[in-house]
Design a protein that fits this description.
Elements (H helix, E strand, L loop, with lengths): L1 H9 L2 E5 L5 E6 L4 E12 L2 E8 L6 E7 L5 E5 L3 H14 L10 H5 L2
Antiparallel strand pairs: 1-2, 2-3, 3-4, 4-5, 5-6
Length: 111
């Protein structure tokens, strides 16, 4: 799970487009654009978070989800490790049916 946390922390979000329902396109500093399926938006301690699954990846990305207005939002990286742990645990608890296809949680963490 530590590798997952490092993976999540190392990805820096700078831009997004929401063209298709259920898909977000993330643009990173290096110019790479990645299509991500939206796994869910959920609340933890009065903040909203979003879980994304990049195409061709087995690792989820977690961001703070900030709604600007009805049509616009921003995704902020979770930089605090304690907050990231809390959000990841909430994601697993809320969406544990997504893990049913795996023997245990460790299988989900592998690429």
């Amino acid at each position: 799970m530590d590798d997952k946390k490092e993976f999540l922390e190392d990805h820096d979000h700078h831009d997004h487009n929401h063209d298709d329902e259920g898909v977000i396109y993330l643009s990173f500093e290096d110019g790479e654009e990645v299509a991500c399926d939206i796994l869910g938006v959920f609340e933890v301690e009065e903040k909203e978070y979003i879980a994304l699954l990049p195409e061709d990846e087995d690792e989820i990305l977690l961001y703070e989800f900030v709604e600007i207005n009805e049509e616009e939002f921003d995704l902020l990286p979770i930089e605090d490790e304690e907050e990231l742990n809390l959000v990841y645990e909430a994601y697993v608890a809320l969406f544990e049916e997504d893990f049913d296809d795996f023997e245990d949680e460790e299988d989900f963490d592998e690429e």
